[in-house]
Design goal:
271 residues, mainly alpha, two-stranded parallel sheet, 10 helices, 2 strands, 1% strand
Length: 271
């Protein structure tokens, strides 16, 4: 079933509602009545949610016919979000692959330090996962929302909303000399509509940015795995467990055994 609403729709809805503030109620009623009568009979008998969606679609078409020089704030939001996803994807792949290549560099003199590789790419992420799980557990006990009450939520929300406002302000500044005064007034309403979305639908507004961070993490690990497989398969490497700690071979064997436990069910031919 197709989703009825998304964040871009909510931003456009707030934008049109802000435009109606201060307007004559009689003219607004006449306009909305005309929109309703122009709808097909099947939609006229639909639920209020679908009627509101039809009203939004009609307002979008009307604005598009009047102003062809700018995009609606919802579309701008989607384009900026796609930009964030693209940056996270390529940044994760290149940073993960580049960092793994640097750790697996082998000049033939000293073996690759497996301890450092394990600490950076496995141990750090395992500690972060445990901290996240522990924080989620205590937030659940306190009755708070796991994501919204976290420090990561507040930091990422400030980061991405700040970047979003700067990008939209930059676009508005570059296009202000090419558009009409009425269009510039509409652009000034964009930021207010986004602020209202953030205040009214705070957690819903944040979820796409949380997904951006998750995309970066997945792509980072994908880059690490790809670089590791390429170096292990395509190069002659020597590995060593270099550490100042007094670790016996039996301890290293036990550690490797526990790390490989999730893959222990695979046949030996796959390992």
């Amino acid at each position: 079933m197709k989703k009825l609403w998304n964040i871009a729709d909510l931003i456009d809805l707030e934008f049109f509602l802000n435009q109606d503030n201060g307007e004559d109620l009689d003219s607004l009623s006449a306009r909305d009545r005309q929109i309703y009568t122009d709808l097909p009979s099947a939609i006229q008998e639909a639920t209020p949610q679908k009627l509101l969606r039809a009203w939004l679609s009609s307002r979008r078409e009307s604005l598009h016919q009047e102003e062809n020089e700018i995009a609606l704030p919802g579309r701008t939001w989607q384009e900026i979000l796609y930009l964030f996803f693209g940056i996270a994807l390529f940044a994760g792949l290149f940073s993960g692959g580049g960092l793994a290549f640097s750790f697996l560099s082998y000049s033939g003199r000293e073996p690759v330090n497996v301890a450092a590789y394990f600490a950076v790419f496995v141990l750090v992420q395992a500690i972060l996962f445990l901290l996240l799980a522990g924080s989620a557990f205590f937030r659940r006990i306190q009755g708070k929302h796991i994501i919204e009450a976290s420090l990561l939520y507040r930091l990422l929300l400030r980061l991405f909303t700040g970047l979003l406002h700067k990008i939209m302000a930059g676009v508005q500044k570059k296009t202000s000399q090419k558009v009409s005064a009425e269009t510039r007034l509409k652009w000034s309403a964009y930021n207010s509509s986004i602020k209202q979305i953030r205040q009214r639908y705070g957690l819903l507004f944040f979820r796409p940015f949380f997904l951006v961070v998750q995309v970066f993490g997945v792509c980072f690990n994908t880059g690490v795995l790809a670089a590791t497989l390429f170096k292990v398969i395509g190069a002659d490497l020597a590995f060593g467990w270099q550490s100042t700690l007094q670790v016996t071979p039996a301890s290293v064997h036990n550690l490797v055994h526990w790390i490989a436990l999730p893959w222990s069910w695979l046949p030996n031919s796959f390992i």
